[in-house]
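Example record used in the benchmark description.
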Amino acid sequence: MASVAAIRRTGRRLALALALAARVGGAQGDARLDLVLPARPASEGPLVTTTRVLADAGVRELLRAGFPARLHFRCELWRDDRFNNVRDAAVEWDLVVKWDPLDRKFDTYRVVGDRATRTGRFDAAGEMEAFVDRPYRMPVPPMRRGQRYYYEASVDIEVLSVRELDEVERWLRGGGDRTAGGTVGRTVRGLFARLLGGERRSYQARSPRFRVE
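Model output (structure tokens):
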């Protein structure tokens, strides 16, 4: 049975979420996702970079209220065939941002497959946003000589609902369900599937086409 304190805490979170949900849905101006090809695409992967995707005031307030945010990245390599484009490779990773109210710091975690690793701890929202916007280099996948390729990238940004907070916090501390068979990866994706107020922000980018010599 839930304690009175836990019920009150959930009630406060829910009330704040309802008050802030409309603000989170607003436009973010210059927020974007960029995909930059290296000088030698056959030997080095592209850079995936976000700009101001968490700079919205409503998102900051939700983070400080205890609602973690998840950024789900996906980068795909496509082969430009004469008659049909073929996806040759895809890489996915997550970045989770949460506020620690005791230490008054922002924590960031990178989630790849079944592993969550804390990647930073920041005093100020601006420092956290600068870290989130750091370029991430995708590993270069195998390519065929003489073929033309291009990359497509996307990032989906979600804010957790009230009922999902406790399980995510247990999982990040290493106490969640970690059974075999990739269960944890599906569990974490499922936890983030229900969005606060139905809001979901997505950004896409595509690289120029290039030929592998």
